[in-house]
Amino acid sequence: MGTDSSRPGSLGDRAPEQVLAELRTTLFASLQRSDQRLRAEQYVRGLLAAEGRKTLRNIAAQIGGATARQSVHHFISDSSWEWRPVRQALARHTERLLEPQAWVVRPTVIPKAGVHSVGVEPRFLPDLGQTVNSQQAYGAWMVSGTHAVPVDWRLLLTESWLADAERRRGAGIPATVRTATPEDCVSQLAPRAGGESPGRVPVVVNVDGLDAAECARRLESLDAPLLMRVDPGTRLRADGSALQGYSERTTTAGQLLEAVKRLRRPTEWTLTRDDRRDTVATTVPVLLPRPPRDRAGRPDGNPWRPMRLIGEWAGGERRQARLWLTDATDLPIGALLRLTRLTAVADRDARRVADQVGMRDFVGRSFQGWHRHVTLASAAHLAVVMAGTEAFPATRATAAAPEVADGPADTAGAA
């Protein structure tokens, strides 16, 4: 097609075969055997060609029929190839293509009918209003104003899996894997994101429902601006040194925004060059408490971390505000709002691309198999971003999906 594959402007219009050939040479070079490189490419092709759920049976049907099913299962669940170098190559290639404006760390909830898939346990899902068996994962996404690609993953594993020797052995969970909280998963993904991406690309994290103070403590060493989406109950207080006339008593983020509502202002900002947005927003200097175990190790012993609380009322002041905390004290409100909306770009591409290439469809019991599957599904996701949703049967139905809306970002955790 005569396009420069290294430029973001060429995304979405590449020939599918050209894309797959490029991914074969850039992403799978770490696989030592030629048959493994071939299987990896075939698996990605199967994810892109299969319609409906991307089960191993369905994927095998795209690349060789019933005779391929056993080899596909072995390649994903029982083979010895290492998925980490593939993810590292995926991140490097995505960065070159996408020129990301932010790294977004977001949750993914994967409902399951059974109880045997690795990491499955009962969880309450607010959107459904009920407790269901599910896996909980966190993904790190490279995001521009127009595209989002997942490049790393963590699967949440609790004591119910790691302390049970039989379950652990059955899932093949390595001895090095330890019990993790959601805060652990977020911190493991975000520092890697901020450290690997040049130019101090901001890290944007959804910690709504998590311990915001604990997440902030873990992410304080990032050499990049941090923005965290928080819930209204997050405990903090106004920074009296920068905000005169307001109580410095500890309160909640929601109550503080209500107390300073006279500071709300109409704000215009841009998501992309041709996409201008109007909203109502305010930014308030605040102090976030540091966990006690962190205070002793700080030279000044300061129990409070200076941050900015952002409140945004997209669609009018009567709607519930989006709440964010950031340490980016030098960025104007419009630039911060643009960064926060990149979560909606990731939410959209999770629905119209990641879900369609089977990111949440792995049904095996293997820990390594889950990681290999989401690694190759992430590669398939990048292929769609490079060639366009109309280029592959798996995503063709979502080609007309709407662009990023000016409403609340999706926090349901759908892949």
From TrEMBL:
PANTHER family: TRANSPOSASE. InterPro entries: IS701-like, IS701-like_DDE_dom. It holds the Pfam family DDE_5. Residues 27-281 form the Transposase IS701-like DDE domain. This is Transposase. It comes from the Bacteria.
